[in-house]
Amino acid sequence: MDPSTRLGDKSLPHVTVVVPAWNMERYVERSIQSALAQTYPALDVLVVDDGSTDATLAIAERIAADNPRITVHSFPNGGVARARNRGTELARGHYVAFLDADDLWHPTKIERQVAALARHPQDDGWVACYALFRMVDENDRVIASGYGAGKRGSFFLDHLLVNHVGNGSSLLVRRDAALEVGGFDPSFAENGIGGSEDFDFQLRLLLRFKMEYVPEYLVGYRVHAAQMSADQTRMALGHIAVVQKLVDLAQLDGRLTQFALVTANKGAVAAFARSGDWGNVKRAALQIWSDDRSAALMFGLNRASFGLRRGAARLLHRVSGYGPVAGRTWRFAECDPHPGILPDGRQARPGSPLHPAPLDQPVVPLVEEDEEEDYPQPEERLGD
After folding, report:
1. Structure confidence by residue, pLDDT tens digits, 14-66
2. How many domains does the chain have?
3. Integer angstrom CA distances of residue 329 from 17, 272, 335
4. I want to staple 133 with a disulfide (CB 3.0 to 4.6 A). Which of 157, 200, 217, 219 is the partner?
């Protein structure tokens, strides 16, 4: 059914927006308002205050006092995973959509995602949908556009190697499926490596179910010093831990396990370097060398090539006069959600914040011809 005809349909599946919030007084009102501005009518907003010590709770309660679609619950601080789980349990919607208290949504996000899932039979395993995202600064200005390759369906192995969803504010998921896989895992934060709980949750969903994809920039992912993902070392260590956990859960064979861990350590090297954690850079690089020397050499060449490409894109960016590097900026709400389109309707140049280069993905190891008969494909190997 065409999504435009579904808006008047009172049988629309209800969506609960879960907003976990901890000390986000500067941004929480903008996030809540972007949820309330959704064009999808069958929607309520559930703010889960995670023991904030600033004005976050007071701001949420003030907005809720004037809008019956908002409910606010406050709990002692337990971390973002527990806050999302509490919101999922309290939600009354058929779907839940997670929106971090510093992020933004395009007004059509939920409508587009529900319509995308409505194209599939309910019993065919399609339970979640994600969209592209743009990174925004503290004043909602676009810094860059996230990469996406448009993976859809059952893509556990691809997602294990490259995080296609990208952040915690992108996913809309059927509530029963979120509960079935156990929600978000709080143990990462308890072990001091929090920040990859979204990635872990998405992978566990993909072990059992399918995900749909909307190829539009419908999420504004906030980049600021106070956010959890600003700690590059913790995030990288958490990412490696998630990959190790999921290769065990999926019972991948030795070759794919090694490949997944080498890929995780490659990404970790770059993250550690960005944070100046040279001890962990050395450790991760030595791990890559120990696991696969040819992969280590190729990684070094790829990083050098990436640096050259990024430098060339930035130079073109400056010369062209597009984007923040040249002093010209756009707010998230001004931007067309379609890839590569400027607010004035012109096509953005490749390498500018509104037109990222294609995502570079690692290639899954090839199966030798004489192994094909006995070597299961990912869908068969991972099971339901």
Report:
1. 999 999 999 999 999 999 999 999 999 999 999 999 999 999 999 999 999 99
2. 1
3. 29, 29, 10
4. 219
